[in-house]
Design brief:
single chain; 330 residues; mainly alpha; peroxidase
Length: 330
């Protein structure tokens, strides 16, 4: 009997340790600010809508900002922090230099609008504002709307060094993608769904030039690329192109968040190796085909995936605070 009790005790302890990492994200909930700042979602949405009307870049810029934030030290708005003094912040790491300023601007303006309401001042974190703004730009560009879980605190550190090896690269294969997403508690279906954020936005030529000029000794052009699309890319991105020149990630519906991303993959029109591999690898191909034919199935999977993404590395208690300004520590 005593032995049985010991076994039960050991099992319960080990289960407790398994559950510990979830306790931070467990504090996230819908309507988190119902009592402290009930109008927060409409305030943020109004600012995001205004930014969206000024420039469509707001959409991909905000989505990428959220993704790059969550994959490095969790969803804590640490990517918004400016470098200062001897501290080189996350946003100045080479992998983050391509983040468009409109994403940062959206978060900062939304925070200012929230804090302009006396009852809301210093009650809402920048991390939560970024999560709400991401939902709003997705909906504004034709994607699904969804209830955002809230209750994150802002992170207390932001270093360029912390970004190393944390963000997926355009050259990644399926194993590398799955490994990096799994490290953040995300499954292969989550990864495929989140990759469809490439349905909007643009990329600089340098990120995929190897696929159209020097892929391999036998094949200068990546054979998985649609030949006509490869020629089109070569015309838009000649060999010594201006590094600021960029092309649409989705050649067909570049300003609509939709499942055309998957239809493009079926036709060999994935811009990055990490896009096209989702169709060429037999392990991920079935979902690409399924979501290419059903926008509802894709939208549902995307909402599940981005909700899980929003739970990564959530800061609570003494691990975070609510910043007065999103781009500087208190």
């Amino acid at each position: 009997m005593a032995r049985f009790i010991n076994v039960v005790l050991v099992l319960s302890l080990s289960l407790g340790f398994c559950l510990l990492p979830e306790t931070a994200s467990a504090q996230l909930r819908r309507n988190y600010y119902a009592k402290t700042c009930p109008s927060v979602e409409s305030i943020v949405r109004n600012v995001v809508t205004q930014k969206f009307r000024q420039t469509f870049v707001t959409v991909p810029a905000t989505i990428r900002l959220f993704f790059h934030d969550c994959f490095v030290q969790g969803c804590d708005a640490s990517v918004v922090i400016q470098s200062s003094g001897s501290n080189k912040a996350e946003k100045d790491h080479p992998d983050n230099l391509s983040l468009a300023g409109d994403g940062f601007d959206t978060v900062i303006k939304a925070k200012q609008a929230v804090d302009a309401v006396p009852g809301c001042r210093n009650k809402v974190s920048c991390a939560d504002i970024l999560a709400m703004a991401t939902r709003d730009v997705i909906a504004l560009s034709g994607g699904p709307s969804y209830a955002v879980e809230l209750g994150r605190l802002d992170g207390l550190s932001s270093t360029a060094a912390s970004v190393n090896g944390k963000l997926p690269q355009p050259s990644f294969d399926l194993n590398q993608l799955n490994s990096m997403f799994a490290a953040n508690g995300l499954s292969q279906p989550d990864m495929i769904a989140l990759s469809a954020a490439h349905s909007v936005g643009f990329s600089h030529c340098s990120k995929f030039s190897n696929r159209i000029y020097n892929f391999s000794r036998q094949n200068p052009v990546d054979p998985t690329l649609n030949p006509a699309y490869a020629t089109q890319l070569q015309q838009m991105c000649p060999r010594n192109v201006d590094p600021l020149i960029a092309v649409n990630m989705d050649p067909n519906t570049p300003k609509t968040f939709d499942n055309v991303y998957f239809k493009n993959l079926q036709q060999g029109k994935g811009l990055f190796t990490s896009d096209q591999v989702l169709f060429t690898d037999q392990r991920s191909k079935p979902l690409v085909n399924a979501w290419a034919t059903s926008s509802n199935a894709f939208n549902n999977a995307f909402v599940t995936a981005i909700t899980k993404l929003g739970r990564v590395g959530v800061k609570t208690g003494r691990d975070g605070n609510i910043r007065i300004r999103c781009d500087t520590f208190n």
